[in-house]
TrEMBL record:
One of its GO terms (molecular function) is oxidoreductase activity. InterPro entries: Epimerase_deHydtase, NAD(P)-bd_dom_sf. It comes from Paenibacillus roseus. Belongs to the NAD(P)-dependent epimerase/dehydratase family. It holds the Pfam family Epimerase. SUPFAM superfamilies: NAD(P)-binding Rossmann-fold domains (SSF51735). It comes from the Bacteria. This is NAD(P)-dependent oxidoreductase. Keywords: NAD, Oxidoreductase. Residues 4-180 form the NAD-dependent epimerase/dehydratase domain.
Amino acid sequence: MKKIAVTGGSGKLGSQLVHALQQQGYEVTSLDNRMSDQLHCRKIQVDLNDFGQVASALHGADAIVHLAAIPAPLFHPYPYIFANNVLGSYHILEAASVLGISKVVMGSSESSYGFAWAPEPFSPDYLPLDEAHPQKPQECYGLSKVVGETTAEMFWRRTGMQVISLRFSMITRPEEYPSFARRDPKSFKTILWSYIDIRDAVRACIASLEAENCGAVSLNITADDTLSHWETKELLAEFYPEVTELRSVFADRTAVVSNAKAKSVLNWKPQYSWADHLSSE
């Protein structure tokens, strides 16, 4: 496995992933609807809604990391967001099956659980939030991610393709951490104070490419701690007192969203904490 296609290679995570893959000796092609002068790899401008363009651009790839998507239910009509994200994912997987590409990594989202963008707020059934928790989106973006994961499972059943869907928490850069430190804990309630440092998100993508015999699996990619100075017990008592099924002790600032499955499946763990960065300033 030497040639990797990255969709959304010009994006926040995609651009960092392209650089990291190149540093590890991979030959990378970026597929995006816009060209970036910050990337020093083969670049193809592609409309993922056009299957012919997708299949042509992926020709010769050994594996795919699919990160291209509208990343939130904002700035576009809802039907367009849903259709764009779902059809793009389907085209990537269909093209991979036609071309005999046996490994795909899909960018999914913690938003698939439904809490982040819910017009009618609701609480988790239990905590910590793991991959077995029901996904209950109330809007187009979260639903598009659920459909993407279901589509991935279908292609695995049909072809045996390994498809790892990464449910990213809010992807953050180190330079953003000082501003987060000044935020009221309530502002991160709907994302359960979860985040993932972009460097750890990149590492999770690469670990997924290198993993073997995983079938179709969805994994939470999140930090080990919460994005708050409060202890986790205080956060839950203040903001989610109605959640009574607590399956963990939640010592100190332990994360509310579980990454245990990703650690086991990928032999990966987050290395960076926003709090460590701030303490080193």
